């Protein structure tokens, strides 16, 4: 470790405070924006697109442990989760458990 | 569990938030934080520092950056900047969620406190939930949900810290994959809003596309580009 022991909690708290700055600015802007305006719709689109981009990136081009799995297996896992979710009247727990268990199982079977 | 059922009016919204956090949201979040806790342990963090990061940063990607960069010997300011920039998604998330919880009678500081509880999960769940909740109940629902998730993450950080190195590889793989699966399910649970569907589709294409050419800005850039294209398309079609 390069940081001295006293400076790690300080770094952690600084990161927490820095992250909060975005939240705080968001609350401030939220109080001054008209929710029926086009600006608000645009921001909502950005928020949804950002999360969707992050999630699809993890499935299509992952880094770390998921890199060892094939794209086909990951897409199968997603399909199993979505089908299970729809068949069980949108039970998230069933969808998540089956979909995520499918990935290592497909890898072992292959 | 069915997120599309109408809600019984007379239930206490705070308790409803707490009880809906238990189940898939807490499970997926818990799995992610077990991974984070064991990573922090293997990179020489104390349990206290790992827990402090969960409570103060409360954003898994930022915490992973902190642990990785700190272990890699990066300087204080570089780590701080990387973590803070990775959290910029909280700005549009807060701006779009907060007005739906607002009530004239409540003091503003309540919202500044509540915003610390915001996470990707509580945002995605609340965006789906709020239209079927009376506006006056929404802050209580969000707070109940958010505090439950926050405390669950704290417990799982410590559990992961203790479990470090004991998880078999297939289980670790399933744990990591649970996260994107969960978000795909909650984001696509209700596809009736055309602008929302377009935003999801455009973002799902723009994010990875931008990641291939400009990885460090792919989240923000992909959101800006994908979201703007979706917004313009939806207006054109309307």
Structure notes:
- The complex is a heterodimer of chains A (110) and B (238).
- Chain A has helices spanning 7-30, 38-60, 71-87, 92-109.
- Chain A is mainly α and 110 residues long.
- The mean pLDDT of chain A is 91.
- Chain B has 238 residues and is mainly α.
- Chain B has 12 helices and no strands.
- In chain B, 50% of the residues are buried.
Radius of gyration of chain B: 19 Å
Overall number of strands of chain A: 0
Q: Radius of gyration of chain A in whole Å, from Cα? A: 20 Å
* Average pLDDT of chain B: 90
Multimeric state of these chains?
A: heterodimer
- Counting DSSP H or I runs of 4 or more residues, the number of helices of chain A is 4
Task: Note poorly predicted spans of chain A.
Answer: none
Order of helices and strands of chain A: HHHH
Uncertain residue segments of chain B: none
How many β-strands of chain B, per DSSP? 0
Helix count of chain B equals 12
Name the beta content range of chain A.
under 5%
> What is the count of distinct domains of chain B?
2
N- to C-terminal distance of chain B: 34 Å
Taking the sheet with the most strands of chain A, its summary is: none
């Amino acid at each position: 470790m390069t940081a001295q022991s006293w400076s790690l909690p300080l770094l952690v708290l600084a990161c927490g405070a820095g992250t909060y700055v975005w939240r705080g600015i968001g609350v401030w802007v939220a109080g001054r924006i008209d929710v029926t305006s086009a600006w608000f719709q645009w921001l909502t689109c950005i928020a949804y697109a950002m999360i969707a981009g992050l999630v699809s990136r993890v499935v299509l081009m992952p880094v770390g442990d998921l890199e060892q799995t094939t794209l086909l297996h990951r897409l199968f896992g997603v399909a199993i989760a979505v089908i299970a979710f729809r068949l069980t009247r949108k039970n998230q727990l069933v969808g998540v458990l089956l979909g995520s268990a499918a990935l290592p199982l497909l890898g072992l079977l292959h | 569990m069915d997120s599309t059922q109408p809600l019984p009016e007379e239930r206490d919204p705070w308790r409803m938030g707490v009880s809906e956090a238990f189940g898939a949201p807490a499970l997926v979040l818990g799995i992610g934080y077990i991974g984070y806790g064991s990573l922090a342990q293997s990179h020489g963090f104390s349990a206290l520092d790992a827990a402090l990061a969960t409570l103060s940063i409360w954003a898994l990607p930022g915490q992973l950056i902190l642990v990785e960069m700190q272990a890699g010997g990066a300087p204080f300011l570089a780590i701080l900047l990387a973590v803070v920039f990775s959290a910029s998604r909280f700005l549009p998330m807060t701006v779009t969620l907060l007005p739906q919880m607002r009530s004239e009678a409540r003091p503003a500081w309540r919202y500044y406190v509540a915003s610390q509880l915001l996470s990707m999960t509580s945002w995605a769940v609340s965006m789906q939930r709020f239209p079927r909740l009376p506006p006056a109940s929404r802050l209580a629902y969000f707070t109940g949900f958010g505090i439950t998730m926050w405390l669950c993450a704290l417990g799982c950080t410590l559990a992961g810290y203790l479990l470090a190195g004991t998880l078999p590889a297939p289980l670790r793989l399933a744990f990591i994959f649970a996260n994107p699966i969960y978000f795909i399910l909650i984001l696509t649970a209700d596809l009736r809003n055309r602008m929302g569907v377009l935003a999801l589709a455009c973002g799902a294409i723009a994010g990875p596309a931008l990641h291939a050419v400009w990885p460090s800005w792919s989240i923000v850039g992909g959101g800006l580009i994908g979201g703007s294209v979706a917004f313009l398309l939806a207006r054109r079609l309307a």
